Write a sequence for this structure.
């Protein structure tokens, strides 16, 4: 009885001669993150479109390797694919910080134009390391979570603020605060052990990390829309047959489009969830806005002094694009 079922499957495998591949994709973000959900959908799309020829296992929450180890592991090929917070690469090239600068891209449209403009340079830098970007997706705009209403910039004095990357840490310093870099998954511990009083992140992360357990106010300051990038080891990609490569890239393009849409929707849902759980959500008052502007200007000047000619040219090109689009 069994033979009738098994034999055709075996023959089908022999006929294509294909060797099914199984990849691991490591992400630092948890299952509650829309990025992780998008990655899982991407993996499902790939498995379905390739008839299981390429299966991608998504390992969430830093369970396979830690955030800092994801890119080195994918370079070595011990992990085939990974997702990271792009701006954590700022020590490699200031281009990676361009999406965490205030006053550059403060809407999804502009953030997408910024990605399209900088994608070729980032793709080249990744290629130099034997890596290939698959897609990048923006987080909702970054804002400030505090334990009290943020009404006076003097409140930043000595405030211990959790930040997700170096640039945000500098921003906090410019405001007079005391920054600590903390992984998203470590946010609850950072608050519960009293290491931080406040944090800069998105509505999405505030919601995923149940910010209401630690803070009471979210100042939706629309600072910037930083991105995650999903990438693959080039050798692993080259080892796939051409049809599978094509299918993978098509699924990646769809994941990018879907991801940006998910980000918009998550922002709305998360802002609502914050409110529903008792967090007061507001925009910065004039004094706070002025202080954020000043700290941002300083941050930008610092970036400009470090950025390469190519990065500065790309910023100019991006600005031209945005101006003509208006
Ligand atoms: N969430 C991630 C990165 C930016 C964001 O909105 C974090 O805070 O770590």
């Amino acid at each position: 009885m069994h033979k009738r079922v098994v034999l055709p499957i075996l023959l089908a495998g022999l006929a294509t001669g294909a060797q099914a591949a199984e990849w691991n994709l490591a992400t630092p973000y948890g299952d509650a993150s829309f990025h992780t959900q998008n990655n899982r959908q991407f993996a499902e799309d790939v498995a379905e479109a390739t008839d299981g020829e390429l299966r991608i296992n998504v390992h969430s929450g830093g369970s396979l390797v830690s955030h800092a180890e994801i890119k080195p592991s994918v370079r070595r090929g011990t992990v085939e694919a990974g997702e990271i917070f792009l701006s954590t690469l700022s020590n490699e090239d200031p281009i990676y910080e361009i999406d965490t600068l205030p006053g550059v891209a403060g809407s999804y449209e502009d953030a997408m134009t910024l990605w399209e403009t900088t994608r070729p340079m980032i793709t080249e830098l990744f290629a130099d390391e034997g890596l290939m970007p698959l897609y990048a997706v923006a987080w909702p705009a970054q804002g400030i979570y505090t334990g009290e209403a943020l009404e006076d910039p003097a409140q930043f004095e000595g405030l211990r603020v959790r930040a997700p990357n170096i640039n945000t840490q500098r921003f906090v310093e410019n405001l007079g605060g005391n920054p600590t870099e903390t992984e998203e998954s470590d946010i609850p511990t950072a608050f519960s052990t009293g290491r931080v009083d406040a944090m800069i992140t998105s509505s999405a992360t505030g919601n995923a990390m149940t910010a209401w357990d630690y803070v009471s106010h979210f100042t939706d300051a629309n600072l910037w829309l930083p991105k995650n990038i999903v990438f693959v080891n080039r050798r692993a990609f080259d080892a796939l047959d051409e049809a599978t490569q094509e299918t993978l890239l098509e699924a990646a393009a769809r994941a990018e489009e879907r991801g940006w849409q998910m980000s918009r929707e998550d922002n709305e849902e998360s802002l609502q969830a914050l409110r529903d759980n008792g967090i007061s959500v507001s925009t910065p008052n004039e004094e706070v806005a002025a202080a954020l502007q000043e700290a941002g200007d300083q941050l930008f000047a610092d970036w400009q002094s470090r950025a390469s000619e190519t990065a500065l040219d790309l910023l100019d090109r991006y600005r031209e694009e945005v101006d003509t689009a208006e």
